[in-house]
Amino acid sequence: MSYTALSFTLLFVLGTMLVSVWQRLGLEKDIIVGTIRSAIQLLAVGYVLQFIFKTDQMIYVILIIIFMISVAAWNAAKRGKGLRGLVWRIGLAIATMELLMMGILLGLHIIEATPQYIIPISGMTIGSAMVVSGLFINHIKHEIQQSKGEIETLLSLGATVPQAIHEVRKRSVKFSMIPTIDGMKTVGLVQLPGMMTGMIIAGADPVIAVRYQILIVFSFTASAAITSILLSVLSYRLFFTPDQRLKQSVER
Question: What Pfam families does the record tag this protein with (predicted)?
């Protein structure tokens, strides 16, 4: 695709902005910022990946994965304003998930140990883990607010912190998994996923493309579950004081 053809896709952005102006939605600034940022970021990543693929040095692969995990943790932690130490907990959960996923994929020779495979698959699973982390943090904050009386009653009756917040954690993990599970149920029926579509457009055999997409779907599900469960274990004590009382003020 030429840059000239690519520039014509700005018509979609322009159309969206015109609708926003017509309906007085006030989305024009966000659309412009999002368009510029996404274009710059994707072009920059394209050149970085081109360099890494040519050098084929694993140190660069490790560095870019660390960078992706750091950005994902920082972005997801925005959902938990007022919770100190949340960024490194999210980062640890995502990093653990990444090590497990890559350990299985590379250890069983499911994918080749090359930057062309490791970086794209890591990026997709880390992105999925970021979304799940944000959903989990957002929902557990809401659940704690709604179940404040129940939690404090359990604590007053002698329950430990893990016992008092167990049901809240369970509901939050389930909520964070809803988009992933719904996506599994409708993949191929409602949507043709990005990786599969990209391979088909590039000329790959559709059956081969489907095999890779199945790999991604299963990886997404596992990464979402692992990240959400680990984060629930690592983060729930942030809502309690050192003497095991529920904190009274957490920003929503």
Answer: UPF0014
SS3 content of the chain, % helix, strand, coil (to 5): 80, 0, 20
The residues pairing with 191 across neighbouring beta strands, listed in sequence order, are 187
- Per DSSP, 246 falls in state B
Strand partners, 47: none
Q: Which residues contact 51 (CB under 8 A, 6 or more apart)?
A: 60
Q: How far apart are CA 59 and CA 146, in angstroms?
A: 46
Supply the angle between the helices 28-55 and 10-22 in degrees, to the nearest 10. 160
Predicted confidence (pLDDT) per residue in 183-241, tens digit = 888 877 666 667 777 778 777 788 888 888 888 888 888 889 999 999 999 998 888 88
Pairs from 48-55 (Cβ < 8 Å, separation ≥ 24): 49/115, 49/119, 52/115, 52/119, 53/115, 53/116
What is the pTM assigned to this prediction? 0.84
Joined together, the tokens standing for residue 145 give 């607010």
